[in-house]
Amino acid sequence: MKQYFHIINDPRFRLVYHEHRLFGDGPSPKKIRLNREGFTIVPGVKKKTMVYPGMLLAEHPSLEKGDLHAPIYGMITEINARSVFVEAVNLEEVEPGAFPAPMEPVDLLKEGTEGEELILAVKKLGVNTRSLGRRVKTLIVNGLNPEPGVRWAEPMLVEHAAEIRAGLELQRRFRRAEEIILAVPAGCKVKLSGVRTVEVDPMYPNSVNELLIKEVTGEENPPDVAAVGMHNVWSLGRVALTGLPLMETVITIGTAKDWGNYIVKNGSIVGELLEFTGISLKSGDTILRGGPLRGESLDRLDRSITKGAYGFFVVNAGEVPPIEGDSPCINCGACIQICPTRIDPRMLSRYAEFGRYDMSRKENFRLCVDCGLCGYVCIARRPVLQYIRLAVKKLEEEERLSRLTPIEPVAKG
Q1: CB–CB of 173/118 below 8 Å?
Q2: pLDDT tens-digit profile of 214-256?
Q3: Pairing mode, if any, of strands 196-200 and 177-185?
Q4: Which positions fall inside the 4Fe-4S ferredoxin-type domain (predicted)?
Q5: What is the rounded CA–CA span in Å between residue 340 and residue 17?
Q6: Residue 172: Cβ within 10 Å count
Q7: Torsion sign over Cα 366, 367, 371, 376
Q8: How far apart, in whole angstroms, are the C-alpha atoms of residue 10 and residue 32?
């Protein structure tokens, strides 16, 4: 598997950056747009409701999905099937008593709170627990930047060590792992008490969790081993130290040349972030929520930063050849050579393009680790990763519906 990783010699695929920049605070948002898909709005929350930082707005039925909280003082201006919109207010212009009493901090680190009780408490504070609550013997904390261009991992290990330690302490109390390993870039000297550190070659896509496990253990898909991103551990530590709901995320904002690491409010509008960081858009530029390889392009500046997002980038026109949605595959094989899991992105993208999602099963679509290298090297500039993601989504929906379909009783006689 490793032989394919070094086909790309571009230094931008190194996940370690020698320039260490402090984390800056993002702008004070004028408006917030929170994703509420799958959430149930709590009673009393409606249009024109006044909200305060940490106020519960919506709950998610899954134990693995953190509940939704307001990150600012403001008034709800709209609630629709996909979003909750909040406009900021000037506290000096608001009458006393306009806001409900703020919540009291929750002491997650107190003795005696463990296991399922602790996981539920964390979920209620807005932290997604899917990657934190799985029962395994070994949990690997991914201390690498998630993809090229994202640059907060190294400074986070140093500047936010308190959050990381608190997050790991809660992880221990979940009683979900016998051993916790911190995977860091080769040459990194960071050590955490009680946690074994393993150095990993910081060449992308080694930071993808499935591939990181292989780097650390030497095995593919070993039983009872899982990996969790440091971003998730930071979120866990954040609520542990503050006792308040998760209202922020850490992201790298920038272009290929100019960038910075910021702590921004969940739901921050991307147009405001561009204005705050002084990044101007030109004709043909593309904005991405996430990273340059795996992020999703946004069509409007009133979109927002979702909970857990780790990057926001502008790809300037001319830097990367544009993707052509109707471009046919030319069978060059570049995507097959670069794929770290040895599947055939060429055929998977074709099946999805023509709606033959069922055919993806024979191509082992579940082995895709979503690294984005296939689309990066595609000479025909096809949206290979996006096609594969479409097939995965369609097949997962099909499987979910099949589980919900009642079985007809067999007629007797």
Answers
A1: yes
A2: 999 999 889 999 999 999 999 999 999 999 999 999 999 999 8
A3: parallel
A4: 319-350
A5: 23
A6: 15
A7: negative
A8: 38
Q: Which two tokens stand for residue 333?
A: 């094989």
349 alpha carbon, distance to own chain's centre: 23
Burial label for 293, CB within 10 Å (0-12, 13-18, 19+), is: buried
Interaxial angle between packed helices 115-124 and 161-173, expressed in degrees from 0 to 180 and rounded to the nearest 10: 130
Can you give the pLDDT at residue 411? 53
- Nearest residue to 303 (alpha-carbon basis) of 312, 294, 291: 312
Helices 230-242, 161-173: axis angle to 10 degrees equals 90
Helices (H), 20-95: none
68-81 confidence digits (pLDDT tens): 999 999 999 999 99
Q: Helix, strand or coil for residue 158?
A: helix
Residue pair 200/186 in contact by the 8 Å Cβ criterion: yes
The CA-based dihedral angle spanning residues 9, 11, 14, 18, taken in that order and rounded to the nearest 10 degrees: 160
**What amino acid occupies position 334?**
A
User: Alpha helix (H) ranges present in 180-269?
Assistant: 209-217, 230-242
Task: Please count the residues of the chain.
Answer: 413
pLDDT digits (tens, 9 = 90+) for 301-343: 999 999 889 999 999 988 888 887 778 999 999 999 999 999 9
Integer Cα distance of 79 and 61 in angstroms? 19
Nearest to 142 by CA among 231, 54, 249: 231
3-state secondary structure at position 385: helix
CB of 355 closer than 8 Å to CB of 16: no
pTM attached to this predicted model:
0.89
Q: Which residues contact 2 (CB under 8 A, 6 or more apart)?
A: none
> What is the H or E stretch that residue 115 is in?
helix 115-124
At which residue do the structure tokens 């539920």 appear?
120
**Rounded Cα distance, 54 and 147, in Å:** 30
Q: How many CB atoms are closer than 10 A to CB 251? A: 28
